[in-house]
Amino acid sequence: MDAVVIAGGIPNPEDPLYTYLKGDAKALVDVAGKPMAQWVLDALSESKRVKNVILVGLSPKNALICSKPLYYLTNQGRMLSNIVAGINKSVELDKKSKYVLIVSSDIPALKAHMVDWLVDTAMETQDDLYYGICMKDVMEARFPGSNRTYTKLKDMEVCGADVNLTHVRMATEHLDTWEDLLGARKSPLKQASKLGLGLLFSLFTRQLTIEDAVRRISERIGIKGRAIIWPYAEAAMDVDKPHQLELLRAELGKSQRKAAAKTKTLAKKMATKKPASPKKKAVVSKPARLKSQPKHK
Questions:
Q1: Angle, to 10 degrees, between the axis of helix 197-204 and the axis of helix 210-221?
Q2: 72: enclosing H helix or E strand
Q3: How far apart are CA 118 and CA 3, in angstroms?
Q4: For 2-48, what is each residue's pLDDT tens digit?
Q5: Which of 28, 34, 67, 200 is the most interior residue, by most CB within 10 Å?
Q6: For residue 236, what is the DSSP state?
Q7: Count of structural domains within the chain
Q8: 209 assigned to some structural domain
Q9: C-alpha–C-alpha distance, residues 134 and 142, integer Å
């Protein structure tokens, strides 16, 4: 399965992250010694389920690396246009392509086994769109103080994950609706209002369960959708504000130091290990030659 990485965002002067970038792409902000997008590419590189990676919004001059075939597409100007361009590139690479991963470039804590988990979980069914969510208690346990925005449903509070999976036909269907929803992605109430007053009222009064929400939204748009509840908060831990950036810098910097210390300890242990004594060859004694017996006269 191909992965489309969306990396076209450039913060404007009103954006809280502008002072960190000043006109450069958000995906290139430094996180523990690497561009933020490189962390995402590392996870996709190690994934067993990812075939090609399509990076939208950056270029080869940014010197990012990936062990999977990496294809660059220029920024199309809008998020939906970037997603559609990425999906179309996947179909161009393989006419039989059916599903594509849509991955944000601002989730540097993502790991390969999490990507594989999503693909395996989603492919248990054949739906049009798989939308990832993470429950509040999972997020707060893993990243306390992250200050994510949560949608309050009847049965749980959730935030959106930034790794999703879609059928390739979604690149040609319902594009006006997707444009509206993506434009209001930071506000669940605004998204609900785009889908009708009934849904907005149910959400506002916390009458919706997650199953109700998926069913009503799917019927409203005319697709078959499925919510994927992530057990990994890393897929929903994106970088929108300075404190979230600093949180992940500290988190990933710590993990790098631990990995380096472990490698150093292992190398030291191997260097001080006494070489095994060479085995002595066993000496096989030759049988004594028998003297010839004297002849009897």
A1: 170
A2: strand 70-73
A3: 12
A4: 999 999 888 888 888 989 887 889 999 999 999 999 999 999 999 99
A5: 28
A6: G
A7: 1
A8: yes
A9: 11
Please state, in angstroms and rounded to a whole number, the distance separating the CA atoms of residues 250 and 74.
31
Let me know if residue 244 belongs to a domain. yes
> In the predicted model, what is the mean pLDDT of residues 222-241?
91
CB-based contacts of 75, cutoff 8 Å, min separation 6 = 8, 56, 57, 82
Q: Report yes or no: 248 and 109 within 8 Å, Cβ to Cβ.
A: yes
CA distance 122 to 103: 15
Q: What angle do CA 126, 128, 131 make, to 5 degrees?
A: 100
Q: Is residue 297 part of a domain?
A: no
Q: Among all chains, which residue has been given the structure tokens 């540097």?
A: 108
Q: Compute, in degrees rounded to 10, the torsion defined by CA atoms 44, 46, 52, 53.
A: 30
Helix residue ranges per DSSP H, the chain? 18-21, 36-46, 79-93, 112-122, 136-142, 175-183, 188-194, 197-204, 210-221, 242-272
What the block records as the tokens of 129 is 């769109």
Q: Is the pLDDT of residue 241 over 50?
A: yes
From 198, 234, 233, 231, select the one nearest 213 (Cα to Cα).
198
Tokens representing 109? 């804590």
CATH number at residue 18: 3.90.550.10
What is the span of the domain harbouring residue 182?
2-257
Residue 275 in any domain: the answer is no
Q: Tell me which of 22-31, 64-73, 98-107, 230-239 is least confident.
A: 22-31
Q: Could you please report the per-residue DSSP string of 162-230? A: SEEEEEGGGGTSSHHHHHHHHHTTT-HHHHHHHT-HHHHHHHHTT---HHHHHHHHHHHHTS-EEEEEE
